[in-house]
Amino acid sequence: METSTVTSVSPVAGNVLFYNSPEPLSREMHGKLGVKQLEGPFAFASAGHVVPLTVAEFQFAALCFPIIFAGDQRQPLAVLGINPGENLFVDAKGVFANGAYVPAYIRRYPFVLAQDEAQQRMIVCIERGAQLFDENGGQVPLFDEKGEPSDYTQNAIKFCEDFEGERRRTENFVNLIKELDLLETKQATFTPTNPDGTQGQAVVIAEYFAVSEEKLRALSAEKLVEIRDNGALERIYNHMTSLAGWDRLVAIASERAQKQAAGNA
Q1: Which residues pair with 98 in a beta bridge?
Q2: Helix, strand, coil percent values for the chain (each to nearest 5)
Q3: Which residue range forms the structural domain that includes residue 35?
Q4: pLDDT at 260
Q5: Has residue 10 been placed in a domain?
Q6: Residue 104: helix, strand or coil by DSSP?
Q7: Cβ distance 177 to 238 under 8 Å?
Q8: 68, 141, 196, 244: most buried, per Cβ within 10 A?
Q9: 230 in a domain, yes or no?
């Protein structure tokens, strides 16, 4: 993967979650840059209540939070909170909840691939302003004494390349379920309990796209066998099972709100 300085890169800032000032990785600009250990390495993700998810992650993510499809492209998203700007799985110290799956989109930060429009290639960029970076070399340098990417950097680049491959596989999966017309609009609702014990009025907390059980059952036997054999059916079931996680999100949000209220009392 190319790491030389590039001056013509398609925009990353402003339309890619968590990245505000990405720079093409180069030994000229970042030769003395390194990374340091952080007590709360996921503080940057504290405002990400939804993050992109690849289809390869469905089986792991489904155990922890809802997987939905959103936007015109029906992009798969991991739902990490019910309120915009609040990730319920990252605490005030920037630590991810113990035992919860951390999406690859979050784990690749502060590295990212971007399109070099001039030469039609993907290049490696870094979020220069990330707290992880140390201008004085840190504990682990990005480049070794010979000016070559360190083992840490090589592993990060490989992770980005693998993520890009999974992103393309995910596009193929989404295209398949769109072609089969399996998606429908759904709502996640929350019914509060009144002080007297009665049920309050249901509140819509999210509207999204999800696979329709009815449409899935209506597929022909031949088509079901086809999507079973190519692995798509298992991922569809992962997604459908994950939607039970809305109740968990509401419970976590309620618990956090109660703790905050008690702390401010």
Answers
A1: none
A2: 35, 20, 45
A3: 22-264
A4: 79
A5: no
A6: helix
A7: no
A8: 68
A9: yes
Q: Nearest 5 degrees, angle CA 38-CA 35-CA 152?
A: 115
CA 207 to CA 219: how far, in whole Å? 25
How far, in Å, CA of 203 to CA of 201, rounded?
6
Q: How far apart are the first and last CA of the chain?
A: 54
Q: Please tell me the total count of domains within the chain.
A: 1
Q: Do the Cβ atoms of 143 and 149 come closer than 8 Å?
A: yes
Strand order through the sheet with 34-35: 133-134, 34-35, 140-141
Give the relative orientation of helices 232-242 and 151-179 as an angle to the nearest 10 degrees. Answer: 90
Distance CA 95, CA 261 (A): 21
**What is the pLDDT at residue 211?**
98
Distance of CA 66 to the CA centre of its chain: 12
- Half-sphere CA count of 260, side-chain side, radius 13 A: 9
Of 246, 42, 16, the closest CA to residue 131 belongs to 42
Side chain identity at residue 18, one-letter code:
F
Do the Cβ atoms of 240 and 211 come closer than 8 Å?
Answer: yes
Whether residue 42 is contained in a domain is answered as yes
Q: Judging by beta carbons within 10 Å of its beta carbon (0-12, 13-18, 19+), is residue 249 exposed, middle or buried?
A: buried
pLDDT in tens, 155-203: 999 999 999 999 999 999 999 999 999 999 999 988 777 777 677 788 8
Q: What is the mean pLDDT of residues 21-46?
A: 93
DSSP string, 111-156: EEEEEETTTTEEEEEEETT-TTEETT--SEESB-TTSSBPHHHHHH
- Whole-structure pTM value: 0.89
Average pLDDT over residues 35-64: 96
Is residue 6 over pLDDT 70?
A: no
Q: Is residue 172 part of a domain?
A: yes
